[in-house]
Sequence to fold (292 residues):
Amino acid sequence: MIYDVRQTTTYVYETAVTRARHVLRLLPVTRDLQRVTAAMLDIDPIPISRREATDFFHNWTTVAELEEPHETLTLKLAARISVTAVEPIDPDKSPPWESVRAEAYASENIGPVSPVHFIHPSRQVSLDPEIRDYARASFAPRRPVLAGAVELMHRIKNDFTYELGATTVTTTPSMSFALRRGVCQDFAHIMIAGLRGLGLPAAYVSGFLRTVPRPGAAHLAGADAMHAWIKVWCGAAGWWGLDPTNALIAGEDHVVLAIGRDYADVAPIDGVVLASGEQRLTTAVDVIPVEG
Fold:
């Protein structure tokens, strides 16, 4: 499936920003099952300097410095991305979760896609005993790892309420777990905390969803904004994307923007601004299929 992706992010500041340094993760890159044929990021006002690079996890980063006083910052992404359907797998034929855990801890690979980076606590995901015990209910002894993860995904979808405004980007997994509500970031963090609590590697994925659902399909929660889901490492079965907000195995409808240990690694906009007062953020996303 080929998509045209358009995203506009706008910050309106209460007072003029006199100087700013932004770290942006808004440009997608080519990955397994995803090919970027064109991508452009416009920044208004135009930065005095702009540097592009990839980070450790192969996410594209743009470091932009602005010295012109401004009350509005507008970021516009335009990209054409091809997503290949994932080959289906029977979750019950994945390895037992205990063997995957043992293999992850024994791994000597420290490359960007190694499971060793995704089994420990990270900046925004602690190992909460309550979340671990909640996840454990899906992992009976010797249960295939992907089957347990898929069941956990469905339980989060059923047990938690998707509610905009119930949480913020700084809400911890423990807080959203206690609330039993939140948005895609919260559900991804909860699922990651539960899997890591059992010793299973889990990564955080930011990206986009197909805007218009397929004929006869339900509208996907998070389709009109940036979205988040997880990837769980299943040993010999590889990495699998799971979307607990929509209870879906990530596939052609999911466009990956960045991958990390949690939201802090993939925040689309980070940095420092010199100003006083509050700011207002609006984001609009369209992911339109142009060819099947």
Remarks:
- The chain has a mean pLDDT of 95.
- The radius of gyration is 19 Å.
- The chain has two domains: 2-83+267-291, 91-265.
- Residues 2-83+267-291 form a domain with the Immunoglobulin-like fold (CATH 2.60.40.2250).
